[in-house]
Amino acid sequence: MHGQGTDKYDNVRVGMNARLDTIQAAILIEKLAIFADEIVARDRVAARYAQELGDLVAAPRVPDGLSSVWAQYTVRLPAGVDRDAVAARLKAAGVPSAVYYVKPLHRQPAYQHHPAAGNGLPVSDRLAGEVLSLPMHPYLDETTQDRVIAGLRAAVRA
C-alpha cells in the first residue's frame, strides 16, 4: 500500500503497491492482446482534450519521440482559479474529476529526511494545488468527452 499511513496520501514509509490477485492477472493477460490499440485510443482522447482545452488550461504535452499510456489526464488550472471549487462544480454537473497526489512527495513523512533546496520545492508545492485530472480511458466517446470539456469550461469560468 505504498507505505500508507492514515490515508492514501499519507506515506509514512517508502513502500510499493504490489496487489495483483489471480483474477486481475487473468484479465490483464487478455488485455495485453489489445494494449497497443488502447494506447492509440487513449492518444486520440488526449489529443482531443488538448485541442479543445488548450486555450483554457495547461494541457499535458508529450515530447517528440516519446509516448504516454495516459494513466491519467491531468491539466493545470490557470493561476488564481480555485481548484476545489472547480472540482465541486464539475461534480455538481455530473462530471467526475480527481486530484491525485494531493501532497507533494517531499511533504510526505517517508521523505522528510531527504535533502531539498534551501527554499524547498516551490514548483512542486504550487503544482500540487493547481492540477486536476479528467476522465481518461480508451473507450471515452466524443459525446462524453464533449460533456467533460463543456463542464470544465463552465466550472473554470464561473
Structure overview:
With 158 residues, the chain is mostly helical. It has a single domain (36-157), classed as Aspartate Aminotransferase, domain 1. It contains five helices and two strands. It has a two-stranded antiparallel ribbon. The protein is globular and about 45 Å long.
Question: Care to give the gist of this entry?
Answer:
With 158 residues, the protein is mainly alpha-helical. Helices cover 39% and strands 5% of the residues. α2 (35-53) runs parallel beside α5 (142-157).
Helix/strand layout:
Elements lengths: L21 H10 L3 H19 L19 E4 L6 H10 L29 H7 L2 E4 L7 H16 L1
Antiparallel strand pairs: 1-2
Helix pairs in contact: 2-5, 3-5
The mean pLDDT is 92
Write the CATH fold name.
Aspartate Aminotransferase, domain 1
Share in β-strands = 5-15%
Structural class: mainly alpha
What is the CATH homologous superfamily assignment?
Aspartate Aminotransferase, domain 1
CATH class: Alpha Beta
Order of helices and strands: HHEHHEH
Poorly predicted tracts of residues: none
Mind describing the biggest β-sheet? 2 strands, antiparallel
